[in-house]
Amino acid sequence: MTAETSQTLDRGLRVLKLLADTDHGLTVTELSHKLGVNRTVVYRLLATLEQHALVRRDLGGRARVGLGVLGLGRQVHPLVREAAMPALRALAEDIGATAHLTLVDGAEALAVAVVEPTWTDYHVAYRAGFRHPLERGAAGKAILAARRPTQPPGERAEAPGYTLTHGELEAGACGAAAPLLGVTGVEGSVGVVMLADVVPERVGERVMHAAREVAEALR
Asked: What global pTM score does this model have?
């Protein structure tokens, strides 16, 4: 800690990070040990975080992340969208297809930024706010593929790093997407959707390049 920082705020943020890293919550004693402070300090931290709905305690006394963090999380989308736009514009213009940034929202894939090409006669209409299950569509499947070390049998991945699909979300439309990698706190993918029978060979590599650009912008 330095003279310019707040020890109490630092401890409160550490509590949130510890709780975010566990599915079953933590007791006051467990938090006390992990933080290296006494239980009285932990009680005060939890009481303050509870007032802002950032922490909740279940009937067994275990502390968990509260629903208040969702309100903070919603404000992240505009920041992520702004950072991703240059790479998405370049991708859409280069490929001549609708480019999108998709983030995980529970069990769904949520398109948070969409850029349509300016020079094509026609392209797939795809809107920010569009949702679909993670198990369907290139955007969601690319995210799921990044969660596991190897591809399962039957997964439609043409090369390490990107996923292709056809007709899963819209008849006659193909999708290609690559996951965002190395961005703490953000799970998503960058992809394109186009009206075609087959995705051109260069699209997969180009999508991977765009995903790397977006990831770099978010670091």
From this structure: 0.68
